[in-house]
Amino acid sequence: MCETELGVAGQQRIQQKLAGESEEKVKSHQANDEELISRRLELGALEDELAERQSVLDRERATWQSQLSITEKELAEARQASKELAQEKAKLTEVEQRLSRKDYAVNEQETLLQLEREELELGYDTERHEHLRQQLVELQKYDALKQQFDEASRGIHNERDALSELPPSKLGGILRILEHA
Questions:
Q1: Would you list the DSSP string of the chain?
Q2: Is 3 within a domain?
Q3: Residues 30 and 118 reside in one and the same domain
Q4: CA–CA separation, 78 vs 51, rounded Å?
Q5: What is the extent of the structural domain holding 44?
Q6: DSSP string over 14-37
Q7: Is the CA virtual torsion 9, 14, 20, 22 positive or negative?
């Protein structure tokens, strides 16, 4: 200041001015304190929200990573299956080519060809063979009748032999019984 003495009125003015400034500063300080408290509360709420969002994000990240892992595994399996399919297709093509060239079971094919030649040389007739087989089945029923006939013939033969050994007196009585029967 100007270093002159102030009168009472000047001192009062300065006191009032300083008191006003002081009161303003107190109010400003209180407003700043209230703003600071409000901002701290807002910061706490934001930190809580951030922690919650981080937790949700971490869970989602774990889920996505798990799904990614599964997808990568399935993709690897699909690629492996694709390779195997290509190999199997190549094998199939090779087998089809061998079949078309008849380049398989060479020994067996030669044996079959030889048997077919022998069949032709022998004049084998499949239809005739089947016809004869059916005739054989039909004739087998007569085999049992033939056996019964043979047994009956042996029985008659045995009875004749037994009758021929009988004395004539008994033979006459038996013949009369048979005549009346």
A1: -------HHHHHHHHHHHHHHHHHHHHHHHHHHHHHHHHHHHHHHHHHHHHHHHHHHHHHHHHHHHHHHHHHHHHHHHHHHHHHHHHHHHHHHHHHHHHHHT-S-HHHHHHHHHHHHHHHHHT--HHHHHHHHHHHHHHHHHHHHHHHHHHHHHHHHHHHHHHHTS-HHHHHHHHHHHHH-
A2: no
A3: yes
A4: 40
A5: 12-124
A6: HHHHHHHHHHHHHHHHHHHHHHHH
A7: negative
In a domain, 5, yes or no: no
Instruction: Give residue-wise pLDDT tens across range 109-138.
Output: 889 999 999 988 888 888 999 999 999 998
**Would residue 6 count as lying in a domain?**
no
Q: How many domains does the chain have?
A: 2
pTM, to two decimals: 0.38
Q: Are residues 133 and 72 in the same domain?
A: no
